[in-house]
Design a protein that fits this description.
This protein is an alpha/beta fold. It has a single domain, classed as TIM Barrel (Alpha-Beta Barrel). Helix content is 39%, strand content 15%. The protein is built from ten helices and ten strands. The protein has helices at 3-24, 27-34, 61-74, 80-87, 108-119, 154-161, 182-200, 219-227, 261-268, 281-293; strands spanning 41-46, 48-49, 58-59, 76-77, 97-104, 124-128, 165-169, 206-208, 232-238, 250-254. α5 links the parallel β5 (97-104) and β6 (124-128). α1 (3-24) packs across α9 (261-268). The radius of gyration is 18 Å and the shape is globular. 43% of the residues are buried. It binds zinc ion. Zinc ion (ZN) binds at residues 103-104, 170, 174, 210, 307.
Length: 307
């Protein structure tokens, strides 16, 4: 078994056990009953939709269709504009509302995900790594991730932009902002917005922090994002967003490789909300340890990886 497959298998086992324990012990049903439970919006993060083996952060097309159909039947799916409007005092969203986002801007979002989204008439947003769009560049990833995922072209971006897909920025180069100088971080945030708006002819109102855990950005970057004119920013910190949510540190639920069927449903029901612990600074350190124990090494420091 490759290291990457071992990692995916281990993560899947942990999630399966944890969600079953929390759900069938009554903890999650009770929490949903007594606390705000399903109040607030769950924003899902996808990366890739393809049928390649050993592709990190990837969901097979068939599984993606099942998930979208499940969401369409059981949830109210909104665009980021509708979500943002509700946050700023607009109309209140019903319980069990979700929004769908993609990070990075891979071509399979166009070839595999978009036809399903369009057929099901479901809105979604894609956060583009501006310097990669319309090029043959490949994002550095784990050693051993054999798939070299190509990025969208600007033509594909424009086509989807005319059919219900919103585009936001995921920085210029996918650099972890906290590891960059203030000037570099500022450039990643401002320049990506300018490029996306120039190419799409539409405002890029939303930002998503590269990698996006608590360890990857701080107050200074949040201020820069606001200053650049974005109206909201999305992290990779796990959780739901109620009326108290910080619009520049919104939480999301990552749909990762192996999050199929049962695990996906349990994630949607909140049985894995406890995973927000791994998105804290200490959690990120533990995650790095877990990866190095498995012998999975990250490529160049600071130039990202995973998410
Ligand atoms: Zn990313």
């Amino acid at each position: 078994m490759s290291r990457l497959r071992a990692k995916i298998f281990l993560e899947q086992t942990i999630k399966y056990t944890l969600s079953s324990l929390l759900f069938y012990s009554g903890v999650i049903p009770l929490k949903n009953l007594f606390f705000h439970g399903e109040e607030g919006v769950r924003i899902l993060t996808y990366h890739k939709v393809n049928n390649l083996k050993n592709s990190l952060n990837s969901i097979p097309s068939k599984e993606f269709r099942k998930q979208i159909e499940y969401l369409r039947t059981n949830y109210n799916i909104v665009s980021l504009d509708d979500f943002h409007e509700s946050m700023t005092g607009g109309k209140k969203l019903p319980k069990k509302t979700v929004a769908i986002t993609f990070d990075d801007g891979y071509r399979d979002n166009y070839t595999n995900a978009y036809p399903i989204l369009e057929e099901c008439r479901v809105p979604a947003a894609i956060f583009l790594t501006a310097d990669y769009i319309g090029t043959n560049k490949v994002m550095p990833t784990y050693e051993g991730d054999e798939t070299k995922s190509p990025f969208l072209s600007w033509q594909e971006v424009r086509e989807m932009g005319n059919h219900g897909i919103t585009f936001g920025s995921h920085s210029l180069t996918h650099s972890i902002l906290i590891k960059r100088s203030p000037e570099q971080a500022k450039r990643e945030i401002f320049e990506s917005k300018r490029i996306i708006e120039r190419e799409t002819g539409k405002p890029a109102k939303f930002f998503s922090y590269p990698r996006g855990t608590k360890a990857d950005f701080d107050r200074r970057m949040k201020d820069m994002v606001r200053e650049a004119g974005y109206v909201a920013a999305f992290s990779a910190i796990s959780g739901i967003n109620d009326c108290r949510a910080d619009p520049f540190e919104l939480r999301r639920i990552a749909i990762e490789t192996g999050d199929k069927g049962y695990i996906f449903m349990k994630k949607m029901q909140g049985a894995l909300d406890v995973l927000f612990l791994r998105d804290t600074r200490k959690g990120q350190m533990l995650k790095d340890c877990f990866n190095s124990l498995l012998g999975i090494r990250l490529n160049k420091e600071g130039l990202v990886i995973e998410g």
